[in-house]
Structures are given as structure tokens and as C-alpha cells.
Design brief:
Elements lengths: L1 H5 L3 E10 L2 E12 L2 E12 L2 E10 L7 H10 L56 H8 L4 E2 L1 E6 L4 E6 L4 E6 L3 E4 L3 E5 L5 E9 L5 H15 L4 E6 L4 E10 L2 E11 L5 E9 L4 H14 L15 H11 L3 H11 L2 H19 L4 H20 L4 H16 L8
Antiparallel strand pairs: 1-2, 2-3, 3-4, 5-9, 6-7, 7-8, 9-10, 10-11, 11-15, 12-13, 13-14, 14-15
Helix pairs in contact: 6-7, 7-8, 8-9, 9-10
Length: about 400
């Protein structure tokens, strides 16, 4: 056994056997050499005080094919001048077989920064569990609730969530805390270095550059000695704000704007991080923004009524207003189409007045204009009085404010 151990051979079988014309011991074992596995067949015997060792080394992959060669060699071995055995061959030595190695675990998947999984902080869904202690604390503090988990891919380290605050489905990387209070969606880094806040920002008649101007002006009012930089990244417009001091520590923010479900607003992400983490955080936020899936935007309630009316409301929702007016005109008696068109614009006013006051005001003005047109189409005095009463009842729905 000393000889075997000195050569780092682990025996897996060992028994007495004839080595040619003398009694001896034969066995088989394994040896590792520079990361490769070898199978070793060996035989020992003693003759006249001499210790004789025979061996056959072969890579494990081809060792089995040499079994016949080894047996022939052992059986044909012959001492020309045997001197006689002076030490008895010992009993069988039971050697526990070396267990086959466990199958190697799959190699971990590596991601590039062009894949969402690169930004994962864990391999599981723990941070998306509503009962996780952090999520429970955020809920109790009124920060919001964990988003609805729609699907997940543990291999890709991603999850698909339903985000009520932005009315979309989004993809996030695993390991982040994600909460929604109905107005904003908050994504938190477990290490506390990164915060990403998403919400819908009404345009109020502004274009993207004007919205960024307003964000910059607000930052300048709140902090001194700031640095600003603007850039665009595949349909995302950004404003970087540097040197924000909070509790005597410098942080940086990047405000990202991209299209929302309709033209009344934009989806805004505010990324807050230290300088070291900012690039990572912004790249991750861009992934989230680009993943937003709104489906087909619809009203909260499906419109009722004839098909031409439902079709007109769908066209209005897509800002195809002239087509919507024609749909109503083709679907109803000409004189009554005026009041029905006014009703379409009244519904548009209600839908847009919170997120896009400019378009809402225009819709309200058109609603009033169509109501007046409706009354003017009367062909007799009696009909004119009746239509004027309907017009006045309709105008009351638009409120007391001036309509021009």
C-alpha cells in the first residue's frame, strides 16, 4: 500500500491472483495527473526477498479497451529463475470502491450589459414576495404594494410584472424590491445605492425639451452649483443632474423620458444613485422603460351602443378625430349627429383634463361648438326651440366656465 500511496494511486479493487508462474496480488486504481484521470492496473509479488511491481497506466477514457492486453500480460509473465516465495501472500484486502463523481453542476450563465439578467441581484423571486420583511415594512409605511407577478424566467433572471401606476406590463431583473402606490412605481436596490422611480407625467401642451427644461428649472431652485447634461438613447431623452448634496453626500440623478401609452403624457423615470453606480442604474432603467407593454389602450369601461359609436370612440382614443366625426355622421341621421359628436368631445374632455389640460380644453370647446351647430340645424321654429333646449341641457354638463 505504501507504493500505491507514494504514487497517489487510489486502489478500487485488490485481490490475490497468480502473476504468471508465481502467486501475487493484483488490483486496479485511479490516479490524477495535471487535471487528467488515469486508470492504473497493477500487480505485486515477492520472490526470494525481491519485491516485483508491474503496472499499466492508461487514460480513463480508453482504459477499458486495455483489459484484455493486461490479462494476457499477467498470464504470460514468467520468471526464468524463480527463487521462491519467502513471505506469504496476505488475505484479500477489501477496498471500498471510489464512488462515481457527481455530475458537474451546470456552468453559471454569464450575462452581458446588453441583457436584462446582467442587472439581477439574486437568482430567485424572494424580493417580489409581498410577505418579505422589506416589502411588509414598505407597505406599512404607505410606500405601496408589491406589483403583480405575471411571469418569471429564473434562468434569464427576469420577471414580468403588472404596473398599475404606469398602466403597463414591465420586465425587471431579479433581486430588486418593486413597489407601486398607484401613482408611482418604485424600484429599490437591496444595497441601498440605487432608487428608480417611474410615473406618468402629463404633457400639458409641452414637448420633450420643454418638459426637461421644467425639470431642470425645478432642480436649480432646490439645489445650488448643479451640473446638467442632456442626451438621447433610442427613443429615450435624458437629463443628468450632478452635484446634488443630500446629508452632506453628493448624489446624481438622471431623468429619463419616453413615450407613454398615448400622446397625452410621457413615462418618466427618475434614477438616483451615487457616482459609482449611476451608469449601471441608468442602463437598467432604460431596459425597464423599453420593456413597457401597454397593449392596446382602452377606456376603463368598454363603450356601449351601436358599432358606429364604439368605432368612433376607438378612433377618438387614437386622436383620429376627423375620422371619428365621419363615423358618427355616417351612422346616424344628419341632424342628430351634431349632438352625438358633441358628446364624443365631452367624453374626450373628461378623459384628458387631468393628464393633458390643453387637449382637454380644446375638446371641451369643440363639444360646445357641435352643440350649438346641432341647434342651428333646425328647419322650423318649433324644432329650433326643442333643439335649443337640448343644447342648453348638454352645455350644463360642460360646467359654468367660459367655453371660448
Amino acid at each position: 500500500m505504501y507504493l500505491l500511496s507514494s504514487q497517489e494511486i487510489r486502489p478500487t479493487a485488490f485481490r490475490p491472483a497468480a502473476v504468471g508462474n508465481v502467486p501475487g496480488l493484483v488490483g486496479i486504481g485511479r490516479q490524477e495527473q495535471e487535471g487528467s484521470s488515469f486508470e492504473v492496473r497493477f500487480a505485486f509479488f515477492e520472490d526470494g526477498g525481491r519485491f516485483v511491481y508491474l503496472g499499466l497506466f492508461a487514460p480513463e477514457a480508453i482504459s477499458a479497451s486495455l483489459e484484455t492486453v493486461w490479462k494476457i500480460a499477467i498470464q504470460s509473465f514468467l520468471l526464468e529463475r524463480p527463487q521462491g516465495q519467502t513471505v506469504a501472500v496476505g488475505p484479500v484486502i477489501e477496498v471500498a470502491p471510489v464512488p462515481e463523481p457527481e455530475p458537474a453542476a451546470p456552468a453559471p450563465r454569464y450575462f452581458t450589459d446588453g441583457e436584462l439578467g446582467f442587472y439581477a441581484k439574486s437568482d430567485d423571486l424572494a424580493t417580489l414576495d409581498p410577505d418579505h420583511p422589506v416589502n411588509a415594512r414598505l407597505r406599512d409605511q404607505g410606500t405601496g404594494f408589491v406589483l403583480n407577478l405575471l411571469d418569471s424566467d429564473l434562468e434569464a433572471k427576469t420577471a414580468l410584472l403588472g404596473a398599475g401606476a404606469i398602466q403597463a406590463k414591465i420586465e425587471v431583473a431579479l433581486g430588486w424590491y418593486v413597489n407601486d402606490d398607484g401613482k408611482r412605481m418604485l424600484i429599490l436596490d437591496p444595497a441601498g445605492k440605487i432608487q428608480i422611480s417611474l410615473h406618468v407625467l402629463p404633457k400639458q401642451g409641452r414637448d420633450t425639451a420643454q418638459i426637461l427644461d421644467d425639470i431642470q428649472a425645478e432642480a436649480e431652485q432646490s439645489h445650488a452649483n448643479l451640473e446638467f447634461k442632456r442626451f438621447d438613447e433610442q427613443r429615450i431623452s435624458a437629463l443628468m443632474v450632478r452635484n446634488i448634496m443630500v446629508d452632506n453626500e453628493a448624489i446624481e440623478q438622471v431623468h429619463l423620458l419616453t413615450e407613454w401609452a398615448d400622446d397625452s403624457a410621457m413615462l418618466r423615470a427618475r434614477v438616483t444613485a451615487d457616482a459609482e453606480s449611476l451608469r449601471f442604474a441608468v442602463n437598467y432603467a432604460c431596459f425597464i422603460l423599453k420593456s413597457a407593454d401597454y397593449g392596446r389602450v382602452r377606456r376603463k369601461e368598454k363603450p356601449e351602443g351601436p358599432k358606429w359609436w364604439q368605432r368612433a370612440l376607438e378612433l377618438e382614443l387614437e386622436d383620429r378625430l376627423e375620422e371619428a366625426e365621419h363615423e358618427i355622421g355616417d351612422g346616424i341621421n344628419a341632424i342628430y349627429s351634431g349632438l352625438q359628436t358633441a358628446e364624443m368631445y365631452r367624453l374626450r374632455w373628461i378623459r384628458l383634463r387631468e393628464n393633458d389640460p390643453v387637449k382637454a380644453s380644446e375638446a371641451r370647446r369643440k363639444a360646445a361648438g357641435w352643440a350649438y351647430a346641432y341647434a342651428s340645424w333646425a328647419t322650423s321654429g318649433g324644432e329650433g326651440a326643442a333643439l335649443s333646449m337640448e343644447r342648453d341641457e348638454f352645455l350644463k354638463k360642460l360646467g359654468p366656465e367660459p367655453l371660448d
